[in-house]
Amino acid sequence: MSKLSSALTIAGTDPSGGAGIQADLKTFQELKTYGMSVITSVVAQNTTGVQNVQHLPVEFIEEQLQSVVSDMPVHAFKTGMIATKDMMQVIRKQMIEQNLPYVMDPVMVATSGDVLIVEEARGYLRDQLVPLATIVTPNIPEAEFLTGLEIQNFDDMKRAAKVIVHDLGATSALIKGGHLEGDATDWLYDGNDFHTFAADRIDTTSTHGTGCTYSAAITAYLGKGYELVEAVGLAKKFITAALKHAYQIGHGNGPTNHWGIREETNEVKNY
Ligand SMILES: Nc1ncnc2c1ncn2[C@@H]1O[C@H](COP(=O)(O)OP(=O)(O)OP(=O)(O)O)[C@@H](O)[C@H]1O
Ligand SMILES: Cc1ncc(COP(=O)(O)O)c(N)n1
């Protein structure tokens, strides 16, 4: 399957290039997807953590969205960091109008531990954005917040995925196991069946932006028309290769490799 496709990410920035909008656009490019972006917050951050944040005015976020959707074809949407309820409201409106594949990464806290969305917006995210998503991609702490469950093993992950679909209303849920011990195993529930995606755990500290990169890859593949399970499988190969071939840069948790994976390995070639 190879056709011209485009994807729009709505998220915060990372000037050090490992997470957020920058990670999403690099991933889209690597997967031969025309990438577009709407910025919600400008974040001063790097591999060591978040130094400062400036939220853009909500009207300006809406203007950016209009600029894109009034002119450009979008085959799939992704949201990442959306810091406030007001921002979520305008994005929600667009998602309803567009009715296209929507990958929702419920970003709450960075790898560094810095909080990326205001406390009182979390409930709105769960109740008003999750139901619109084609796929929600929480890590373990995010899945615990969304479901109120404690997650310690695969059975808990599967239970949480079911709650996100049947109780919260998402079309599917992918619970990522990066925060558990052992292999890096993720569980996808598509409303009927479970699918598991596993990789050997890579011994690396380069995990900044892992979640952003993974969900951007899922978005790119959905935009190309791949079915959900296939899109997640291909994205899992991509994130695993990006972790395995990461450059050791920065003084904290370095970024994954968004560039040249195809040239350096034959692990990611299916797009
Ligand atoms: N050390 C690792 N080795 C292999 N795969 C990993 C490793 N850490 C995370 N992963 C995989 O990376 C993807 C992202 O998972 P994770 O649970 O880390 O998400 P996240 O917490 O949202 O990411 P982030 O680190 O960006 O916050 C998943 O597919 C997970 O299984
Ligand atoms: C703008 C933005 N969005 C998301 C993340 C999460 O990424 P990570 O948890 O890997 O730091 C981040 N650090 N910055």
Automatic annotation (TrEMBL):
GO molecular function: ATP binding; hydroxymethylpyrimidine kinase activity; phosphomethylpyrimidine kinase activity
Enzyme nomenclature, EC number: 2.7.1.49, 2.7.4.7
Annotated Pfam families: Phos_pyr_kin
Record keyword Lyase present: no
Stored InterPro entries: HMP/HMP-P_kinase_dom, PM/HMP-P_kinase-1, Ribokinase-like
Keywords: ATP-binding, Kinase, Nucleotide-binding, Thiamine biosynthesis, Transferase
Cellular-component GO terms for this entry: cytosol
Protein's pathway: Cofactor biosynthesis; thiamine diphosphate biosynthesis; 4-amino-2-methyl-5-diphosphomethylpyrimidine from 5-amino-1-(5-phospho-D-ribosyl)imidazole: step 3/3; Cofactor biosynthesis; thiamine diphosphate biosynthesis; 4-amino-2-methyl-5-diphosphomethylpyrimidine from 5-amino-1-(5-phospho-D-ribosyl)imidazole: step 2/3
Domain Pyridoxamine kinase/Phosphomethylpyrimidine kinase: 14-257
GO BP of this protein: thiamine biosynthetic process
SUPFAM superfamilies registered for this protein in UniProt: Ribokinase-like (SSF53613)
Catalysed transformations (reactions): 4-amino-2-methyl-5-(phosphooxymethyl)pyrimidine + ATP = 4-amino-2-methyl-5-(diphosphooxymethyl)pyrimidine + ADP; 4-amino-5-hydroxymethyl-2-methylpyrimidine + ATP = 4-amino-2-methyl-5-(phosphooxymethyl)pyrimidine + ADP + H(+)
Transmembrane segments: none
Top enzyme class: transferase
Similarity comment: family membership: Belongs to the ThiD family.
The protein's name: Hydroxymethylpyrimidine/phosphomethylpyrimidine kinase
Organism, as annotated: Piscibacillus halophilus
Phylogenetic lineage: Bacteria, Bacillati, Bacillota, Bacilli, Bacillales
